[in-house]
Amino acid sequence: MRTLDREVVIIGSGPAGLTAAIYSARANLKPLLIDAPPDAARQTTPGGQLMITTDVENYPGFPEGIQGPDLMAAFRKQAERFGTEFLEEWITEVDLSERPFQLQTADYVINAQTLIIATGASAKWLGIPGEAKVPKGFGGNGVSACATCDGPLPGFRNKDLVVVGGGDTAMEEATFLTRYASKVNLVHRRDKLRASKIMQDKAFQNPKIEFIWNTGVQEILGEPETGVTGVRLRHLHTNKEHLLPTAGVFIAIGHKPNTDLFKGQLDMDEVGYIKTSHRSTATNVPGVFACGDVQDATYRQAVTAAGTGCMAALDAERFLDHLPVLMPGGDEVTMEGEHITADHQAIIEPDGSMVSNHPETLAAQKK
Ligand SMILES: Cc1cc2nc3c(=O)[nH]c(=O)nc-3n(C[C@H](O)[C@H](O)[C@H](O)COP(=O)(O)OP(=O)(O)OC[C@H]3O[C@@H](n4cnc5c(N)ncnc54)[C@H](O)[C@@H]3O)c2cc1C
Questions:
Q1: Which residues are CB-neighbours of 315 under 8 A, at least 6 positions away?
Q2: CA separation for the pair 81, 19 (Å, rounded)
Q3: Which atom of ligand 1 is nearest to the CA of 121?
C-alpha cells in the first residue's frame, strides 16, 4: 500500500470533478483527482456520463454542438494544464470521522485535508435487449435516459416517441418531449402513476401524451443505420405482445446517486443524494464538499455540474484559508472547528465555549 497526503482530493472526473480540478489547480492547491477505471458492468468511464453520449448541443460555447467524449477530453486537458494529478482507482472505503479524511483504493491509502465528492449519478435502465449503448444496442442511437439532453435532436422531431416510467421523472420527460414529438406514448407497468398529482394532471391534460397501462417494454428494435424503429410491448395481465413503431425510447425510471460509499457518514435525502447547503457545496462534515449530480436530483446537466464543481473548489480553498464556510444548517464553520451561529450573533469555540461575534461586545466582555 502506498500512502498519499493531499490538501484537496476530488473523486470523479465528470464535468463537476474536472471543473473542481481546474479551479483548485489554478489556485495552486495541487489537487489529486481519483476516478474509477472503465467498467462496463458498473457503468463507469473516466469522464463520466457524457462519455456515453454523442451530440451535446446545450453546453455553452459550442454553437455547433460537440460530441460528449470530445467535451470531456477538453475538460481533462484543461485540468492537466494546471497540474492536476490523476489516479485511476476505485475508492473502496472512506473514513470521514476526522481530518485528514482517509480514502482507500486497492493500492493506496489517501489522506485528504479536504474532499470534493463528484461521483455523479447513474440512470436506472430496464436491462432489456436493444437498450445497451451502441454498438451492442441503440443507446445513443434512439435510446436515451435524458429528454432535456436528447429530446431536441433532429432524429426525434415530429416523430412518435416512447417514454417508460410512472413517476415524476417520466411525467416531466413526456411533457417536455411533446414540444418536439408528434406524439408521446407513455408506457407504464401498472394502472396507476407514482407521480405527484400536479405532474399527473399536467400529463393527463396534454393531448399529445397517450398512456399505455399495465404494459412492459420487452425489447427495443431497430437497425444500426436508422436507429430505433419500434418497441415490442407485452400487456402484463394478458401477456399479449404487440409492436409499436417509434423513433425513440426515453427510459425514465429514475436515477441512483453514486453515494453508497458515504452512507452513514454524510447526510443524504431518502433517495441517497448528498445534502449540501445549496448556497455552498458544504456537506454536514466540515471540509467535505459535494458537487454535480451526486447532490442534485433536480437539474442534472453538465453545465450545472460544472457550476457546482467551481463552487466546491472555491469552498475548499476558502476552508483551507481558515475562512468560514456556510454549512447546510445555516451556521458557518472554520477549519479550526469554530462555529458561527446562523444568526451571526455568536461563535462557538471548538471547546464548546461561546463568545459574541460583535467586536464591541467582545471588547466590553474582556474588560
Ligand atoms: C446518455 C446521457 C446523455 C446526456 N446528455 C447531456 C447533454 O446533452 N447535456 C447535458 O448538459 N447533460 C447531459 N447529460 C447529463 C450529464 O451527463 C450529467 O449531468 C453530468 O455528467 C453530471 O456530471 P458529474 O460530474 O456530476 O457526474 P458524472 O458525469 O456522472 O461523473 C461521475 C464520475 O465519478 C466516478 N465515480 C463514481 N463512483 C466512484 C468511486 N467509488 N470511485 C471512483 N470514481 C467514482 C464515475 O466513474 C464517473 O466518472 C447526459 C447524461 C446521459 C446519461
A1: 280, 281, 282, 289, 325
A2: 13
A3: 30
Round to whole Å and give the CA distance between 193 and 143. Answer: 22
The residue length of the chain stands at: 367
Assigned C-alpha cell, 67: 460530441
Strands of 248-251's sheet, edge to edge?
A: 143-144, 248-251, 160-164, 183-187, 209-212
CA pair distance 367, 141, nearest whole angstrom = 74
Assess whether the C-beta atom of 44 lies below 6 angstroms from ligand 1.
yes
pLDDT digits (tens, 9 = 90+) for 347-357: 999 999 998 88
Neighbours of 267 (CB within 10 A): 13
Cβ(142) to ligand 1 under 6 A? no
User: Contact at 8 Å (CB) between 52 and 143?
Assistant: no
Ligand 1 proximity of 293 Cβ (cutoff 6 Å)? yes
| 112, amino acid identity | A
Q: pLDDT tens-digit profile of 277-319?
A: 888 999 999 999 999 999 998 898 999 999 999 999 999 999 9
d(CA 196, CA 165): 13
pTM: 0.85
- Contact call for residues 22 and 79 (beta carbons, < 8 A): yes
Task: Give, as one character, the DSSP assignment of residue 81.
Answer: H
Query: What does the DSSP assignment read for 336-352?
Result: T--EE-TTSSEEE-TTS
Question: What CA–CA distance (Å, rounded) separates 59 from 280?
Answer: 23
pLDDT digit string, tens, across residues 131-166: 998 889 999 899 999 898 889 999 999 999 999 999
From first CA to last CA, the distance across the chain in angstroms is: 55
Cα distance between residue 274 and residue 292, in whole Å: 10
CB-based burial of residue 95 (10 Å sphere; 0-12 exposed, 13-18 middle, 19+ buried)?
exposed
Amino acid identity of residue 166, one-letter, is G
Mutate to test the pocket of ligand 1, among 19, 49, 251 (most ligand atoms within 8 A of CB): 49
Query: Can you read off the three cell numbers belonging to residue 29?
Result: 492547491
- CA–CA distance, 329 with 345 (Å, rounded to integer): 15
